[in-house]
Amino acid sequence: MALVLDPTHARVILHGITWATFERLLADRGDSAGPRLAYDQGTVELTIPSPEHEWLKGTLTQIVDAIAFARDLHYQNLASTTLPRRDLDRGFEPDACFYIQHAAALQNIEHLDLETEPPPDLVIEIDIVNPSLNKLPLYAAIGVPEVWRYTRNGLELYQLQHDHYEPIASSAVLPGISRSDLEQFVDQCRETTHRTAWFKEVVAQSQLSAE
Question: Are the CB atoms for 159 and 172 separated by under 8 Å?
């Protein structure tokens, strides 16, 4: 087993890890707060998010909630739930994920089985430092239709095309919402002193974009 430490972030990379070991890491951590895990065919990444990372994750999650509220959408927010595919030798815990188009297709969210149920329609990933493990191939292998990836350079939107992702200017799972809209919402949140008022404004703007 090889170990790689990333000095710029609370991140550890382990190579030569079996699926059984990955499952034990998940079991040992349980439901308690701990490192976020990703597994890609023998490589494990363990990440402890920074406060800025968590702020961005929470802000983008609230934006999705506001859009769904504005449009009266039936959706499921499964946050950072573990998404394993043993048959693909891959699994990950997204920063946030949502079922929107397939919200009604979930039979049992207590025991999500991605071999028989659809993947999330939207995954949010925060990469504000150089990522050690490229997770886009993971998301593509599992079939996630859309990814929002926030980096130091801003927000990137990707849509799955066959077996890879292509950048897009506007969301496909939330039509009428562009990348610039989302970045504007994030910037407005940074500037506000009243988050509830900001949330209401996102709801109002999202209602207009749907008309």
Answer: yes
What are the structural domains of the chain?
Answer: 50-209 (3.90.1570)
DSSP 152: T
Q: Contact 93/37 with Cβ under 8 angstroms?
A: yes
For 71, phi then psi, to 5°, come to -105, 5
Q: Which residue has the tokens 């504000």?
A: 128
Tokens of 47: 């990440």
For tokens 């801003």, name the residue: 154
The pTM assigned to this predicted structure is: 0.89
Q: Which residues pair with 38 in a beta bridge?
A: 45, 92
The Cα 200–Cα 15 span in angstroms is 45
Q: Please list the pLDDT of the chain residue by residue as tens digits (211 residues).
A: 443 434 445 778 899 999 999 999 998 887 766 788 999 999 999 888 888 999 999 999 999 999 999 999 999 999 888 899 999 999 999 999 999 999 988 766 677 888 888 999 999 999 887 656 789 999 999 999 999 999 989 999 999 999 999 999 999 999 999 999 999 999 999 999 899 999 999 999 998 776 6
Q: Is 65 exposed, middle or buried (0-12, 13-18, 19+ CB in 10 A)?
A: middle
Cα separation, 145 vs 9, in Å, equals: 28
